């Protein structure tokens, strides 16, 4: 990018400010991020805005950050580092309550006042996200988190009876998906594993490998609070769904057809 003489002292227009918002959200590609950082390093006004935004973010974290889960930490790491695999692109970043640069001046004042104890509880309640608030993740974001954590389940059933009981305790209906020669059922994760809602706050996530490829199954009551959308998946994957009894099963798979949910059966 060629910059005009005197650009380092020029006032900012809306373009760089809009890009600052994208940068802070972690939504830039590695190339865009590097280009933006080059621009910020040579444009004093943009550098000040960026430093101020980072200072406010750091102040909030030091004053106390609401509890997070391993799943969301891994999601943030995947977004920030750009280490997503070719098959699983980095997930869509999740906002953690930061404000737009247009409001940055007011927030800098709030943060400074909070540092010296002037604003106190008023500042806290207006800036820190509610720890009880539930985020919503897409199927593709969950897959990115699972890959970032080594595709390891949070809970493994010791036998088929425990598998059926796990589903029944959650939804009131027993269901079994048994391993076969080509399908290896690995274990479960939960919405709480990711600190977020999927189909609902009760969604169970079944991890499996089919012919050595990672597959996720999202299980919830039918019809569920929300519907997982086929468009919210990484390139090379498909989201297929199937009602089984009173449950709705979604399979996120790299194969043309469902291989796990087709083997699911109700067990009384």
Account of the 3D structure:
- The protein has 268 residues and is α+β, with helices and mostly antiparallel strands.
- It folds into two domains: 7-133, no CATH class; 136-266, no CATH class.
- It has nine helices and nine strands.
- It has helices at residues 14-24, 30-42, 44-63, 70-81, 104-115, 121-127, 139-148, 160-171, 191-194; strands at 135-136, 175-176, 183-190, 196-197, 204-210, 213-221, 238-244, 247-253, 265-266.
- It has a five-stranded antiparallel sheet. It has a two-stranded parallel ribbon with strand order 1-4.
- Strand 7 and strand 8 form a beta hairpin.
- Helix 1 (14-24) runs parallel beside helix 3 (44-63).
- The longest helix has 20 residues, at 44-63.
Domain count: 2
Biggest β-sheet description: 5 strands, antiparallel
How many beta-strand runs?
Answer: 9
Q: What is the typical, i.e. mean, pLDDT?
A: 74
Write down the overall geometry: elongated
Radius of gyration: 22 Å
Q: Count helical runs.
A: 9
Q: Could you give the order of strands across the largest sheet? A: 3-5-6-8-7
Derived from helix and strand composition plus strand pairing, the structural class reads alpha+beta
* Secondary structure: helix percent: 25-40%
Stretches where pLDDT falls below 50 for ≥5 residues?
1-10, 62-70, 81-103, 116-125
What is the CA-CA span between the terminal residues?
Answer: 65 Å
H and E string:
HHHHHHEHHEEHEEEEEE
Report strand %: 15-25%
């Amino acid at each position: 990018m060629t910059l005009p003489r005197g650009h380092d002292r020029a006032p900012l227009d809306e373009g760089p400010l809009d890009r600052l918002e994208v940068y802070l959200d972690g939504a830039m590609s590695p190339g865009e991020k590097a280009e933006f950082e080059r621009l910020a390093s040579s444009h004093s006004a943009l550098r000040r805005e960026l430093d101020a935004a980072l200072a406010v973010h750091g102040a909030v974290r030091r004053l106390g950050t609401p509890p997070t889960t391993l799943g969301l930490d891994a999601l943030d790491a995947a977004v920030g580092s750009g280490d997503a695999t070719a098959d699983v692109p980095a997930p869509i970043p999740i906002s953690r309550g930061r404000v737009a640069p247009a409001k940055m001046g007011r927030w800098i004042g709030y943060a400074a006042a909070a540092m010296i104890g002037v604003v106190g509880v008023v500042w806290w309640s207006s800036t820190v996200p509610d720890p009880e608030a539930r985020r919503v993740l897409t199927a593709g974001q969950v897959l990115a988190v699972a890959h970032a954590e080594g595709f390891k389940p949070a809970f493994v059933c010791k036998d088929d009876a425990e598998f059926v009981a796990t589903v029944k305790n959650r939804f009131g209906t027993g269901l079994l998906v048994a391993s076969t020669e080509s399908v290896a059922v690995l274990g479960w994760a939960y919405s709480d594993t990711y600190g977020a809602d999927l189909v609902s706050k009760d969604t169970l996530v079944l991890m499996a490998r089919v012919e050595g490829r990672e597959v996720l199954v999202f299980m919830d009551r039918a019809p569920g609070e929300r519907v997982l959308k086929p468009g919210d998946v990484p390139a090379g994957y498909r989201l297929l769904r199937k009602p089984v009894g009173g449950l709705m099963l979604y399979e996120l798979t790299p194969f043309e057809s469902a291989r796990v949910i087709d083997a699911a059966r109700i067990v009384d």
